[in-house]
Design a protein that fits this description.
By secondary structure, the chain is α/β, with parallel strands linked by helices. The protein contains 11 helices and 6 strands. Strand 5 (100-103), helix 5 and strand 6 form a beta-alpha-beta unit.
């Protein structure tokens, strides 16, 4: 019987190698990507059954990488593996296209269970956060529904928002737009205030919803 093919996307080598050693007992690990852009390239090359994706990666964050991956290689299922337990971030990941969300502090055996569940066509959420997430999925998406179109933002704010959604740091945005880091942080605060957003995850979902980031 063919083993399911797994692609790991994690920018900390000690973590990714530990995951490889753990998974190779039951699965075929086809490769390791160290950033979001490399994840997309490796996924198109290897066509894995499951991509195990960290949210906090350089060049392209895990949420945006997941969204693009689901367009480029739709047959690949995504399990997010993250230290972040904020239900809003988990919900953003699921709405972006991930089929599973697992906390890094989960027991090792839970990783195998999560992969097997998504391979079977199910959704898997770590029991440590499942209840809060399921309640949040039923909440109205006020930010998307109350007329907060990108037209409310200045062209510069839209540029900053797009780069935030692509996973760029404040320093990277400052360098690309020839601004100071303080100015970038000021724009970010203004964007969140104008849109009524409380987290970066919400900004990412907003940018995806209104097409400010390209597939």
């Amino acid at each position: 019987m063919r083993k399911a093919r797994i692609l790991i996307a994690e920018d900390h080598r000690i973590v990714s190698e530990g995951l490889r050693n753990l998974l190779e007992r039951d699965f075929c690990v086809v490769g390791i990507a160290e950033n979001g852009e490399e994840l997309l390239a490796r996924a198109e090359e290897f066509r894995p059954d499951v991509a195990l994706v960290d949210i906090s990666m350089p060049k392209l964050n895990g949420l945006e990488a997941t969204r693009r991956l689901r367009v480029k290689v739709p047959e690949t299922k995504v399990v997010i593996l993250s230290m972040h337990s904020d239900p809003k971030l988990v919900i953003a990941a699921l709405r972006t296209g991930a089929q599973g969300y697992l906390l890094k502090r989960s027991a090792p055996d839970e990783l195998t269970i999560a992969i097997e569940r998504v391979l079977a066509g199910e959704r898997y959420i770590s029991p440590l956060i499942a209840q809060d997430v399921l309640e949040g999925l039923d909440e109205p998406q006020e930010l998307m529904e109350r007329g907060n179109s990108p037209a409310r933002l200045t062209p510069r704010q839209r540029e900053v928002l797009r780069l935030i959604a692509e996973g760029r740091t404040a320093r990277e945005i400052a360098e690309q737009l020839n601004l100071s880091v303080k100015t970038v942080e000021f724009h970010k605060r203004c964007i969140m205030s104008q849109l009524g957003a409380r987290s970066i995850a919400t900004l990412v979902r907003y940018a995806i919803r209104y097409g400010l980031v390209n597939p």
